[in-house]
Design brief:
This protein is an alpha/beta fold. Helices cover about 35% and strands about 15% of the residues. The protein contains 12 helices and 14 strands. The chain binds phosphoenolpyruvate and manganese (II) ion.
Length: about 350
């Protein structure tokens, strides 16, 4: 349930509503909005009788929340959340492109790719230091050394960096070196990791579990917001289906559904969805056309020798093409009315 206060509600009236919620055994979560405060009611089991609150001073309306997710829902917050890292924002007016190798392999490799993607128009650098690999015999990432290389990339290029956290044991280190923390598809329902992310001072990219419904994904994000961290970006990266022509199936329809259901920004990772580089640019264009707030793309200057995900990594020139195309699509969509007016 959401209690919307009148524009001129006083702090005393807001405090009285919070007290009334708590004295009914629920938890109150005030949500400051553009011109009025709303107060979310959490931890209720079953429906709450709205008459208990609708008559209180300063209350404009009481809205029942019908979805199992609350803090992430549009019902709780109508305005889009904008997530910030340095001077880059995700979820605002601009399209945000994150790019880099699957894994950080060396300082030279990371800096070489970072220069390429920055020149092409990426705003955030990605690279894994702790890698979740299907086989224990595959390259597992450089660990803390990889984090130090990422920090160097930020110093040299000025780009904020994002990297994946694999478990509770490396959360502090990832948080110390990176500007954004990524929770990967395999950890989407790792609830202790989600709770730790809720206490983080860093923005979090929460990738969709490879077999998760949109509702399960939003409930996972709810853990992070419930813990107090509202800076969460959702990332659609493809789901498991029966097909064999791609590594996963990019669920494009998740983008408009998430935008309708949640105020959190949504980005798309066309690389892990595709698995093969010849599909990546098409999927990226489709994602932006479907209203994604941004993209996360794997790029490698020498993908044949990449230590992970070489087959899906774009060559720098391909990434330049991708950036040119998606920016053009984004611009056309932003100017839709003018373009139609000229026609
Ligand atoms: C990655 O971004 O490198 C990664 C492992 O992604 P996912 O969790 O989507 O597989
Ligand atoms: Mn990868």
């Amino acid at each position: 349930m959401l209690i919307v206060m009148k524009k001129n509600a006083t702090p005393e009236q807001i405090g009285a509503v919070v007290k009334a919620i708590e004295s009914n055994g629920y938890t109150a979560r005030p949500i400051p909005g553009g011109d009025r405060v709303s107060i979310g009611v959490l931890y209720n089991k079953g429906a709450v009788d709205h008459h208990r609150f609708s008559g209180l001073a300063g209350v404009k309306e009481v809205i029942p929340v019908t979805k199992p997710y609350k803090l992430v829902s549009r019902e709780f917050q109508a305005e889009d959340t904008v997530v910030r890292a340095g001077d880059v924002s995700v979820g605002g007016e601009k399209l945000c492109i994150m790019a880099g190798p699957c894994a950080v392999e060396s300082e030279l490799q990371a800096l070489t790719i970072a220069e390429h993607v920055k020149r092409a128009g990426a705003q955030i650098f990605r690279g894994g230091a702790f890698k979740p690999r299907t086989s224990p015999y595959s390259f597992q990432g450089l660990g803390e050394e990889g984090l130090k290389i990422l920090a160097k990339v930020r110093d040299v290029t000025g780009m904020p960096v994002v990297t994946e956290v694999l478990d509770l044991g490396n959360f502090d280190a990832v948080e110390e070196y990176a500007d954004m923390v990524q929770i990967g598809t395999r950890n989407m329902q790792n609830f202790s990791l989600l709770r730790r992310a809720g206490q983080s001072r860093r923005p979090v990219i929460l990738k969709r579990g490879m077999s998760a419904t949109v509702e399960e994904w939003l409930m996972a994000a709810e853990y992070i917001l419930e813990g107090g961290n509202t800076q969460v970006i959702l990332c659609e990266r493809g789901i498991r289906t029966f097909v064999t022509h791609s590594r996963n199936t990019l669920d494009i329809s998740a983008v408009p559904v998430v935008r309708r259901e949640s105020h959190l920004p949504i980005i798309v990772d066309p690389s892990h969805a595709a698995g093969y580089r010849d599909q990546v640019i098409s999927l990226a264009r489709a994602a932006v056309a479907a209203d994604a707030h941004g993209l996360m793309v794997e790029v490698h200057h020498d993908p044949d020798h990449a230590m992970s995900d070489g087959a899906q990594s774009l060559y720098p020139e391909q990434f330049e093409t991708l950036c040119r195309h998606v920016r053009a699509i984004f611009e056309v969509m932003g100017q839709g009315s003018e373009v139609r007016g000229q026609g």
